[in-house]
Amino acid sequence: MPTSEVYLDHAASTVVRAASKAAWAAAVEAHHANPTGAHKAARSARRALDDARDLIAEMVGRDPAEAVFTSGGSEADNLAVRGVLAARGGTAVCSAGEHHAVLEPVEHADGLTVGLDAKGQVTPQALADTLKAADDVSVVSIIAVNNETGAVNDLPALAQVVREHAPGALFHTDAVQALSWIDLAPAVADVDMVSITGHKVGGPIGTGVLFVRAGIELEAQILGGGQERGRRAGTPDVAGAAAFAAAVKATVERRPDEVVRLGGLRDRLVDGLVDRLGSAVVPTLLGRGHDSEVAAGIAHICLDGVEAEALLFLLDAQGLRASAASSCSSGAQDPSHVLAAMGVPRELAAGSLRLSLGHSSTPADVETALEIIPPAVKRLLRHGGG
Amino acid sequence: MSGADRRRRTYAEPVVAVTAPAFSWLAERIGGVEPTLNGMSGNGTSIVGRAGPVLVAMSGGVDSSVAAALLVEAGHEVVGVTMKLWGGPSDTGCCAVSDVDDARRVADRLGVEHHVFNFGDDFERDVVAPYVADHAAGRTPNPCIECNRHLKFDRLLRRADALGFSTIATGHHARVVATADGPRIGRGADAAKDQSYVLHMLDDAVLGCLLLPLGAMTKAEVRHIAADLDLRTAAKPESQDVCFITNQHGREAFLGDRIGLKPGVVVDRAGTRVGGVGSVELVTVGQRKGLGLAGGTDPHYVIDVDPTSSTVTVGTAEDLLVDVTPLESWAWTGEPLSGELELQCSAHGVPAPGEVVDNSVLWRDAHRRVAPGQSVVAYRGDLVVGGGIVGRRGETVRRRQ
After folding, report:
1. Strands B352-357 and B383-390, how do they pair?
2. DSSP assignment, residue B280?
3. pLDDT tens, residue by residue, A332-350
4. Smallest Cα distance from A5 to chain B, Å
5. pLDDT tens-digit profile of A365-382?
6. What is the architecture, at CATH level 2, of domain A6-15+255-382?
7. Contacts of residue A317 in chain B, CB cutoff 8 Å?
8. A375 and B82: CB-CB below 8 Å?
9. Contacting residues of A for B162, CB less than 8 Å apart
10. Radius of gyration from C-alpha coordinates of chain B
11. Mean pLDDT of chain A
12. Residue A328 sits at the chain B interface (C-beta within 8 Å)
């Protein structure tokens, strides 16, 4: 009976990296002033903030002038979609498998959604069909790497579709999960706005950036002192930005090695589950290795005949932290809108399990998971699914 | 030391010690021993001395908060769970995120784990859809009873079993009483809060797994304990009415969205039109107001609702009385009983004497009509011995002289 925690929910929030903690502590120690002030202490804080901005932009291959610090991915996504709609009006379009931080603003504005294919991706054809049928599209948002399934979208191809069928529209991507797994610079080269957050890459929760290409008309969603070039009011979080930047740097520098290492662990995990559970395991996406169309660290499966909520309870009780679909605000498991958009039957989707690896994951984590998960699944199968 | 001081001393500090060994049952449960719902031998009258962990259904109200506290105090390994049943709007004090927060914070205070189970699909299928269908058929359902039948004491129990819990507990004001014939539901000590009526459907198998820690307490005592423990739910108002029907928009809006409500004619027993209603599906047997009747006559009451012909039949107070109430279903808790029983037709209604024979209630004294869809619960003494749902068989209703 394992007693320590096996954390396989890095896609929800990962362990804060040592470099990030050190950067946060150093910034907090060094900077107490408001970075928008005029005195020397303020200028010093402002320098630290802009150093962080420069570093993050460099790591993602964008111009630092594009970077708007936010409170996280959700705020960045909201600013992109709602900021454009507020400034330009028109119709918003996103995929049906977006994170709720994009989906809700789009649906709230009576926007349009594009379905996913069985691999969880948005096909250029599906996007083109939607854009051709829509009037006055002003913003299109397609997630770079899906947060539930790990499916990777072909952003350059989708950007081409937007240029062709909705030339007046801005193209946004939620790259919150992607930053850990893919080289963002080429992926987002033709994307107008990009959201990232710190806590998926080993930085603190509560940090985010929206990159906004120069010249884009965007209405701020938080009004106040005009910080962040008028795009986002509120005193900038200097220490958070420094810690975020340190985490992004570590992530990007180690990414080539990490995707190979974690891709191997992910395959070992999925293969082990299939070996032990046979046909009860329905791999949602058959991603292999590290160069596939699925993010290396995300193992998403469905367990036929099992209630995810019951399974998570049993796993949690034995120290294994995982998740199913997105949790609603009460903590209950809601049926996955991503799987629904992929055409996965609701009953099968009820058994979804996302095991996500991160920088602190070890082979021992995988071996322990392979000891814990199969007996729990078998127990539930004996009990009508739980 | 006075009683209050002693209790304060026992309860006042958060009970955190249980956190560490929590889930200790799980290794053996998963590895080998299979707890079964039917294999329980406990008599349920005491919350002390039961083996194994207890899953406590915590709604976020004061009753289930105190039930959980008492079980922790008695030394049980307790896990709290809140069922998320309804995804739509609610303003009636049930199923809201704030209630989940209350349940979680009470669990934190007690040092026990808390989980949320989403049984929304089950609730829609087993409670909401039948509620709507019943109204469409001119019946007056009791969704809280169906929620107990299908959710709390079936779905949750099956989940509990799958997770290795052989015992569940709720904060209902009723008792599980051991009898020679097996466990029975008994009335709670607080007559005004007694909830045995809504638990009437529980059979031996369920009662063998169930703890009701509040059965011997009054509501005042429950609130006193909650205040003593400084639980945030101590002064929380009672939940009211049906959780998925909002006070703001009501039954009419809810049903109107799901089924087309039809206007109906109101006729007297001779078939003469005497009034009209906007929505025949919202009319209930026994109803007196909102029937569009001319003033100046004796009071008239609804004695029948037929949505097929959109007809509501009214009669005098005398016409409202019957000797026989038809049942569309009936289940005895144990062996079928003959002879006179106390029969109760609403959650806190006054029981009346009668017999249950051939799917009918034969009242000793003429009894007010009971709306089809409502539950009749039979008691012998303080114990529930059976229950069923009232049907609509007008032709069998006759006056016994």
Report:
1. unpaired
2. G
3. 777 899 999 999 999 999 9
4. 13
5. 999 999 999 999 999 999
6. Alpha-Beta Complex (3.90)
7. 23, 26
8. no
9. 310, 379-380, 383-386
10. 23
11. 94
12. yes
pTM of the model: 0.89
Q: Which residue of A has its CA nearest to B103?
A: A330
The answer to whether A330 contacts B26, with C-beta atoms less than 8 Å apart, is no
What per-residue confidence (pLDDT) applies to B96?
65
The answer to whether the CB atoms of A318 and B84 lie below 8 A apart is no
A156 within 8 A of A187, measured Cβ to Cβ: yes
Could you state, in order of their start, the residue ranges of all structural domains in chain A?
6-15+255-382, 18-250
User: What is the pLDDT of chain B when averaged over all its residues?
Assistant: 85
Q: Which CATH class is domain A18-250?
A: alpha beta
Give chain B's domains with CATH numbers: 3-228 (3.40.50.620), 261-315 (2.30.30.280), 321-396 (2.40.30.10)
Residue A375 sits at the chain B interface (C-beta within 8 Å): yes
Model pLDDT for residues B250-263, shown as the tens digit of each residue: 888 999 999 989 99
CA end-to-end distance (rounded Å), chain A = 22
pLDDT tens across A275-317, in order?
Answer: 999 988 887 765 555 656 899 999 999 999 999 999 999 999 9
The CA distance from A97 to the nearest CA of chain B, in Å, is 20
Q: Terminus-to-terminus CA distance in chain B, angstroms?
A: 64
Q: Are A262 and A297 in contact (CB under 8 A)?
A: yes
Band (pLDDT 50/70/90 cuts) for residue B294 is confident
Interface test with B, best of A4, A313, A323 (most B CBs within 10 A): A313
ipTM: 0.89
Instruction: Check if A6-15+255-382 and A18-250 are the same fold.
Output: no
Is position A328 annotated as part of the catalytic site? yes
- Per-residue DSSP letters for B124-166? IIIIIHHHHHHHHTT----HHHHHIIIIIIIIHHHHHHHTT-S
Distance from CA of B146 to the nearest CA of A (A): 21
- Element at A113 (helix H, strand E): strand A112-114
For chain A, give the longest Cα–Cα distance. 69
Asked if residue B238 has pLDDT above 70, the reply is yes
| Residue A329 touches chain B, beta carbons under 8 Å | yes
With a cut of 70, say whether residue B39 has pLDDT above it: no
Given a cut of 50, whether residue A243 has pLDDT beyond it is yes
Residue with the bigger pLDDT between A201 and B90: it is A201
